[in-house]
From TrEMBL:
Amino acid composition bias (Low complexity), ranges on this chain: 294-316
Lineage: Bacteria, Bacillati, Actinomycetota, Actinomycetes, Kitasatosporales
Keywords linked to the UniProt accession: DNA-binding, Transcription, Transcription regulation
Pfam families: HTH_1, LysR_substrate
Gene3D superfamilies (UniProt xref): Periplasmic binding protein-like II, Winged helix-like DNA-binding domain superfamily/Winged helix DNA-binding domain
Family named by the database record: Belongs to the LysR transcriptional regulatory family.
Domain HTH lysR-type per the UniProt entry, residue ranges: 1-58
Protein name: LysR family transcriptional regulator
InterPro entries found in the cross-reference section: LysR_HTH_N, LysR_subst-bd, WH-like_DNA-bd_sf, WH_DNA-bd_sf
Provenance organism: Streptomyces ochraceiscleroticus
SUPFAM superfamilies given in the database record: Periplasmic binding protein-like II (SSF53850), Winged helix' DNA-binding domain (SSF46785)
Ranges where the record places region Disordered: 291-316
Amino acid sequence: MEARHLRYALAVAEHQHFGRAAAALGIAQPPLSRQIADLEREVGERLFDRTPGGVFPTAAGAAFLAPARRALCEMSAAAVEAGRAARGETGRLRVGFIGSALLRFLPSVLAPFRRDHPDVRLELREMSTARSAAALTRGELDLAVGRGAPRGAGAEELVTVTVGRDHLVTVVGTGHPYAGLKTVSLAQLGRQHLIVTPADDEPAVRAGLRALLEDNTLALDTATEARDVHTIIGLAACGVGAGLGPSCMRAAGRPDTWFCDVTPRTPLPDLVLSHRRDDRSPVLAAFLEETRRSATTRARPGRARGAAVSRSDAAR
């Protein structure tokens, strides 16, 4: 039994005449009559009474037509849902991200993605770069946004694209001696109590800071650790010390804090988006396309330049 048999039976029931039903279906009458006869043989019951006054459903036919109509509706809905899934309009996307990604990159992508794909289930998890990279390689995430290219087992199977660049800044409370300064030197920072991200969370950032401070690494060994940029800013505002973090941290500034650039200007590991090379999920493709559009918008004159992302870019 095929969908066309159901459509033919419903047309005959509606028009109560083989000729009119055939015309409505756009086929000849003899083939329609044969198809209905074939359907009745398959069902094992006579579905229509053929009378001089017209063709009318039997009791068996009436019982058959109601679920046949529902079945056609379900088949049509299934085709629609299949198309939506193929276009990335439904499904699930699991994203791991570091907190600082919420200051610039993720707001530019998540809002339009949610607007254009309201039926995609987003699972968002704040995680360190190391943890999200490991979860991505294990198949527990579809995307990871972190600081620096993922490392470790399975990293070679990932596609990684830069989505943001930052340099090192320090944040202090307004009562701190550095408040009001445009820049502070690494030597000055080496004499301060520092607030930094844990080495286990962001090893690339911590290793870079240790190399920069050289003989003043004791400041790192005695530093207060905070996993989130908002916590770093909050502790600095409380007078705990000088917080170190990415320049995008300025977006979360408070009236009781002050930001200074660090000299010499010190680039941090890029903010990167990573996904598995063999992932062909339409939802992932839709998110990457939204990321590309967002980057194009940010790159227009008068705006900060961003990185475009697409599957073709990522494969280069």
